[in-house]
Amino acid sequence: MLFNRPEGYTELELMEEVAGGNESAFNLLYEKYAGKVYAMGMKYLKSPFLAQDAVQEIFVKVWNNRGELPYVKSFPAWLNTISRNQLINELQKQVPMETLEEFQPEEKHKIAAVSGNEIDFRELEQLIKKGVESLSPRQQQIYKLSREEGLSHKQIAEQLSISYDVVREHMSKALKNLRIFLENNYRYMLLLWLFSRNQ
Q1: Do residues 159 and 150 touch, judged by C-beta distance below 8 A?
Q2: Is the dihedral of CA 96, 102, 108, 112 positive or negative?
């Protein structure tokens, strides 16, 4: 057996074991790469809570897609792709994106020719950061507590000693102002990104 050999195992052997449903092998794979995935999550989500949650979601996807492992040439590259897609989804949750159908048809047509060049992950992260910085101090505070620290409206109200309705109102305005900022400053960037995500 793989785990009885004193000399250890190769990464290829480990992937084969995981593909066959070996949970012990999966745990070893998790221990080896979870730290790297967490660091990637922290870099872009800026929240220990969200980063750790993303790690769990990513490795659930690894396990659910373990049947692909025998055909994977580089596990780190494969894991990076899964991680990147998951983190992009997490970033997308932080802003109220509109669907392509709600934009003008001619604008969708304009970006069709360049849709293969998906917007870089760092560009999206910087886009959101600038948008948040454009909010009022109170809106920024409540937005970050909600989206970066994962607090509920009730928890935010208790922490800031304000009412639940005030928190909800500020959050609603923050999301509205953020959407306006993104549409005004990065309309075509968002269209390009949304188009590539729907391919």
Answers
A1: no
A2: positive
Residue that the structure tokens 């950061």 belong to: 129
116-124, Cβ contacts within 8 angstroms, sequence gap of 24 or more: 116/196, 117/192, 117/196, 118/192, 118/193, 118/196, 118/197, 119/189, 119/192, 119/193, 119/196, 121/44, 121/84, 121/87, 121/88, 122/44, 123/189, 124/88, 124/91, 124/193
Residue type, 149: E
Long-range contacts formed by 121-127: CB under 8 A, 24+ apart: 121/44, 121/84, 121/87, 121/88, 122/44, 123/189, 124/88, 124/91, 124/193, 125/44, 125/91, 127/182, 127/186, 127/189, 127/190
> Considering just the CA atoms, what is the radius of gyration of the chain in Å?
21
Length of the chain measured in residues: 199
SS3 category, 126: helix
Amino acid at 154: K
pLDDT, position 195: 42
This prediction's pTM: 0.54
| CA distance linking residue 58 with residue 135, whole number of Å | 31
pLDDT tens, 38-87? 998 888 777 788 888 899 999 999 999 999 998 888 899 999 999 988 88
What does the alpha-carbon distance between residue 45 and residue 39 come to, in Å, rounded to a whole number?
Answer: 10
